[in-house]
Specification:
The structure holds two protein chains of two kinds. Chain A has helices spanning 2-25, 30-40, 45-67, 75-93, 97-119, 123-144, 164-184, 186-196, 198-203, 208-234, 247-257, 262-286, 292-304, 307-317. In chain A, 77% of the residues lie in helices and 0% in strands. Chain A is an all-alpha fold. Chain B has helices at residues 3-33, 41-59, 62-86, 91-114, 139-157, 159-169, 171-176, 181-208, 219-229, 234-254, 261-264, 267-279; strands at residues 129-132, 135-138. Chain B has a two-stranded antiparallel sheet. The chains are: A mainly alpha, B mainly alpha.
């Protein structure tokens, strides 16, 4: 726990240092920008909850298949499909639309898992192809069938909304359920064995194909829910998908900064949500582009990808305490 | 447009569309043959497209733009190699990190240089063409074919190529024979990055004429799929790149003819997915130690 925290803190510090240099090189006020990001990002708890909730879920979408040794890069497409089906289903079904969004994501995730398990299709490539296909399918549906009668640049309004605090509560419950599934059930154990040692899993008679399909379906379910919560808060899908775009990809960063732990992902989602909100303040007050957040998340993940790099940094900086 | 003329047009413009896919594929084949999988090529494509447009815009020289794109690709390849090869990082995660950072970095640059959130101004600097009978082909497209042939020779007909493939198949054996495995892998990743960077330059300067945010749009991953389709061989990769180039060219040309622009855009992605599903279980296997740090 302490080790994980110090590794994440160190990686974040390295990323912030790199980002400051980048800002300086591009002619922005680095110190004020980062100060604004962190001091203004966490001021509005309700907004923080609204931004964090979908990120918790898209992190879980990556995390469960990751434990089974698979890379679900398809959280993005699962979020698009979940958002689209929730938007449609909530018109007549209200709250039941949430189930439609989640189920759509689960079917999509399960499909990618089955493609991998039975046809040998690399899940990373399949996921990216499906992401872009659904990107255009969503744009098509919004512009052709779900257009708002008065505002042609966006879809009709959602038929149901939970509100930010309940969204975060739902996301936190999902994280607890994911934790219980992974560490307190036989299925979770099987998923983890397949992920950490496929040969041991085969020797123990665990069906790796089943683990692949089920873990991807559960991941997809969370991905669909991530899109559902996002569109629920925004209220509609706009014609450029600006609100939905990136929810799935950022979830990967959230999961990895949360050290691939469901509960760590909640903490990391809150942190990143604050940075995203702070990023908009940064733009408003200083004109610094909010995409800086993507750079910070990306570089943090890069440093975290190499445990050996962290060891060197901990030794070099004298922060290791050992 | 008359039907036959339209398809002829698409068939010819596919040569331009296939070029970035082919260049990324060749670079990734070299990297994967050495044992390193770099899914960061998507981000390299994007970042080098940006670098090429920025250099060409401010210098007015297309050649300088292309050189800058290739250099940016090599540098990001080196950064990835530092983590993936020397720091023994998880290669997929390091690649994802490159993709995420590149997206943020290029939008940041877009706003810093031109004050725009979506796209750069058009770049007037033009890349050279090669006249061929009635029509003409971009010189870089021909160069890409030549690079494919050279890469094949390098990989399968030289001692260095043999050593590089040994690093991907049996790195410990290669090491025992005196091959500097990490150096070979690093060189392969840097070369792969430079080729992807060349592809990014072509994408921005030739196909688009400007930089738009997220313009690589999965093209790097289509190339990654093509690596497997080709059986990690640069020559069959030409055919695969042409097929995917054809789907992109058809999507762009047909959307002016029929109304369903958004749905046509899905063509290259669905084509790649279908090809992956049909060819998923073939006898050609990837390099034995692909993705495993040494």
């Amino acid at each position: 726990m302490i080790a994980a925290l110090s590794e994440v803190a160190l990686a974040l510090a390295a990323a912030l240092a790199f980002s400051s240099l980048l800002l300086l090189a591009l002619g922005y006020d680095a110190a004020s920008s980062l100060l604004t990001m962190f001091s203004y990002g966490f001021g509005n708890p309700e907004y923080l909850a609204a931004v964090a909730a979908p990120l918790v879920l898209s992190a879980l979408a990556f995390l469960i298949p990751f434990k089974a040794g698979m890379f679900n890069i398809g959280g993005e497409g699962q979020a698009y499909l979940g958002a689209l089906l929730f938007l449609y289903a909530s018109q007549g079904l209200g709250a039941l639309g949430i189930a439609a969004g989640a189920l759509a994501g689960a079917l999509l995730g399960g499909l990618v898992g089955a493609l991998r398990a039975f046809l040998g299709v690399n899940e990373v490539i399949a996921s990216i192809m499906i992401n872009w296909t659904l990107f255009y399918v969503t744009l098509f549906s919004v512009s052709k069938y779900l257009t708002h009668p008065e505002y042609p640049h966006r879809s009709i309004d959602v038929g149901f909304s939970l509100g930010a605090p309940y969204s975060l509560l739902l996301a936190a419950l999902a994280a607890l359920a994911a934790y219980a599934l992974l560490y307190r059930t036989l299925l979770g154990y099987e998923i983890r064995v397949v992920g950490s040692s496929p040969r041991a899993a085969a020797y123990a008679g665990i069906d790796a194909r089943r683990a692949a399909v089920i873990s991807m379906a559960i991941g997809g379910l969370f991905g669909g829910l991530a899109g559902t919560l996002k569109v629920m808060y925004v209220g509609h899908i706009d014609a450029t998908m600006s609100a939905l775009f990136g929810v799935g990809f950022l979830g990967i960063g959230v999961a990895l900064i949360g050290r691939a732990n469901p509960l760590g992902s909640v903490a990391s989602a809150l942190l990143l949500a604050g940075m995203i909100i702070g990023g908009h303040w940064m733009e408003l007050r200083l004109g610094t582009p909010p995409e800086l957040t993507d750079v910070i998340v990306g570089t943090t993940v890069l440093v975290l990808s190499a445990p050996y790099a962290l060891k060197l940094l901990l030794k070099g900086g004298g922060l290791g305490g050992g | 447009m008359v039907e036959a003329e339209l398809w002829a047009f698409i068939a010819v413009s596919s040569v331009a569309y296939m070029t970035p896919i082919l260049l990324v594929t060749i670079g990734e084949i070299i990297a994967e043959r050495s044992g390193v999988v770099n899914i960061g090529v998507e981000g390299i494509l994007l970042a080098s497209a940006f670098a090429a447009v920025a250099a060409a815009f401010f210098s007015g020289s297309a050649a300088l733009g292309v050189a800058s794109g290739a250099l940016a690709g090599a540098l990001i390849g080196a950064l990835f190699g530092l983590f993936a090869v020397y720091l023994r990082a998880d290669q997929i995660i390091a690649g994802l990190a490159i993709n995420l950072s590149s997206y943020g970095f290029t939008v940041l640059g877009l706003i810093a240089l031109w004050g725009h959130h979506g796209a750069s101004p058009r770049v007037e600097a033009e890349l050279p063409y090669f006249s061929l009978g009635q029509g003409s082909v971009p010189l870089l497209s021909l160069l890409a074919l030549l690079i494919a042939a050279v890469a094949w020779l390098l990989l399968f007909r030289t001692r260095a190529g043999l050593a590089l493939r040994a690093c991907g198949e049996e790195p410990s054996a290669a090491y025992a024979m005196g091959v500097n495995v990490r150096l070979y892998r690093m060189a392969a990743v840097v070369l792969g990055g430079a080729l992807a960077g060349l592809g990014g330059s072509f994408l921005a300067l030739e196909l688009a004429g400007s930089f738009t945010r997220g313009m690589s749009a999965g093209m790097g991953f289509i190339a990654l799929a093509n690596v497997a389709f080709s059986g990690w061989n640069p020559l069959p990769a030409i055919l695969g790149a042409y097929v995917f180039g054809f789907l992109s060219a058809a999507a762009d040309a047909l959307q002016q003819e029929v109304g369903y622009a958004y749905l046509l855009k899905t063509l290259p992605y669905l084509g790649t997915l279908a090809a992956a599903a049909l060819l998923g279980r073939r006898s050609i296997r990837p390099p034995q130690r692909l993705g495993v740090p040494f």
